[in-house]
Amino acid sequence: MGSSLNKPELIVNGKRLDGRDFGELRPIKIEAGVLKNADGSAYLEWGNNKILAAVYGPREATPKHLADPGKAIIKCRYQMAPFSSLGEHNRTGPNRRATEISKVIREVFENVVITSDFPGSEIDIFIEILQGDGGTRAAGLTAASVALANAGIKMKDLVYAVSAGRIGDHVTLDFDMIEDNYSDADMPMAIAPRNNELLLLQMDGGLTIEQFDEAVKMAIGAGKTISALQRDALKRVYETKVSQ
Amino acid sequence: MREIVLPGTAISDQRISAENTYFDGAKTRSEVVGLYDSAHNEVIQLEGRWKPRPGDVVVGIVERVGRNGVYGISLTEAVDGLLIQDKYDNARFAVGDVIEAEIRDVEHKRLAVLERPKLLRAGSLMQIKAVRVPRLIGKANTMITQIIELTGCNIIVGRNGLVWMRGSNVAAATAAVLTVEREAHTSGLTERIKSMLEKINGNESRT
Questions:
Q1: pLDDT digits 0-9 by tens, A187-228
Q2: How far apart are CA A46 and CA B187, in angstroms?
Q3: Angle, to 10 degrees, between the axis of helix B142-151 and the axis of helix B189-206?
Q4: What is the per-residue pLDDT for A54?
Q5: By the 8 A CB rule, do B159 and B58 touch?
Q6: Which CATH number fits domain B124-206: 3.30.1370.10, 3.40.1360.10, 3.30.460.20, 3.40.50.261?
Q7: Where are the domain boundaries for CATH 2.40.50.140 in chain B?
Q8: Phi, psi (5° rounding) for residue B68?
Q9: Given A118, A121, A156, which is nearest B31 (Cβ)?
Q10: Per-domain residue ranges for chain A?
Q11: Which residues on A lie below 8 Å from B4 (Cβ)?
Q12: What is the CATH architecture assignment of A18-236?
């Protein structure tokens, strides 16, 4: 992780290190329905992030004592592949960070998934980070949302997520790994596009109230692009397939 | 006119009651990936699990045989079937038998109580996505009747996604069913299936 002593210059000539403006997203590519065995799936590339999300269910809840007779339960597993980044994540299995991210993502989806139709069952969400380059929880959540819709799970909305933060005095959108490590504040957000409801808000570092407002506004602005990409990916599944 | 809708897509600025939608303030929004048919005001689900309803005809496999004509029937991963036979009904089933039955009642949304069981002997069984079954049956049974007539197979379609078929031309029927499943969201499908099966029939009569 970064320290303030050896902090690199993150803004050069008014641009960020990879040449983006402060409010610019990295290029995003989403594809839905990539895994045949899963009920729903999505593959997402967000800058250098490469993420696979798969959804199974509703299926019988295991272990049985977790089953809720009134609704389906949601389980989420976020995991970084051992080869996904430099160092840090080279051991398989859950760690503190993965457990936390799994929990917050699950709680986002508990707010939008309509669970009353399949009581006693569970919906499994798997998010596998194949290659990580900062902002994987936001990217993973965006992919999982597409996978859930692709599985035909009833939802109120197609959630997206993006992070915003601060480098020096500049409010900045969508950090990559190096910016994530050395920035002054990082704030991932998950938003429901139908009413711009915030479903996830975490913050590392500090923002003034004005900067906070600007960051949220920036995320909602970028959300239009992300939402459109999610919708396109889901519609593309039904475009081409006609025989003869 | 049909268009693809996604979770959260607003269907109407008014509250209209339609399947697979919910009210959001004054608006109506879709809950699923589906086709919105504005003429009939309905959202047809394209993906997802089957929700059992009384009256649905299902195809199931006998999983457990209890005493006095009580059977556990496997329908889908999320829904189990329970068959309690009438005491005057002498038909008995064994584990592994494939049966056709009708749902009398659904308990706790995941246990379907079945009635009027019928043993399906021999034949083969295939599974398709349950949400595509209405398309396979077609409006007023047009699609399935057509497949049965053109292939000469005996086909029984369960709402739970299991399709049982028997006959000399099972391969053609299977191909037709899979095509319907794959292209359920497209229009003009009945015509395409017809020409596809006629082509297969034509090839066979020539050889």
A1: 999 999 999 999 999 999 999 999 999 999 999 999 999 999
A2: 35
A3: 0
A4: 97
A5: yes
A6: 3.30.1370.10
A7: 57-120
A8: 55, 40
A9: A156
A10: 18-236
A11: 234-235, 238
A12: 2-Layer Sandwich (3.30)
**Got the DSSP string for B106-133?**
EETTTEEEEEEEEEE-S-EEEE--GGGH
For residue B182, give Cα distances in angstroms to A136, B113, B185.
Answer: 33, 31, 8
* Cβ-proximal residues to B92 (8 Å cutoff; 6+ apart), any chain: B69
What residue spans in chain B does CATH classification 3.30.1370.10 cover? 124-206
pLDDT at A212: 96
| pLDDT level of residue B204 (50, 70, 90 thresholds) | confident
Provide the 3-class DSSP secondary structure of residue A128.
strand
Q: Start-end ranges of CATH 2.40.50.100 in chain B?
A: 2-45
CA-based nearest residue in chain A for residue B129: A39
The ipTM is: 0.86
Closest partner CB to A231 (pick from B6, B10, B31):
B6
pTM of the model: 0.90
Which pLDDT score is estimated for A140? 97
Instruction: Quote the CA–CA distance of A198 and B62 in Å, as a whole number.
Output: 48
Write down the CATH superfamily of domain B57-120. Nucleic acid-binding proteins (2.40.50.140)
Token pair for A228: 């459109």
* Tokens 């569970």 belong to residue: A122
Which DSSP symbol is given to A200? E
In chain A, the percentage of residues whose pLDDT exceeds 70 is: 94
* CATH tag, B2-45: 2.40.50.100
Phi, psi of B95 (to 5 degrees): -60, 130
Pick from A60, A148, A154, A234 the residue to mutate for testing the B interface (most B CBs within 10 Å).
A154
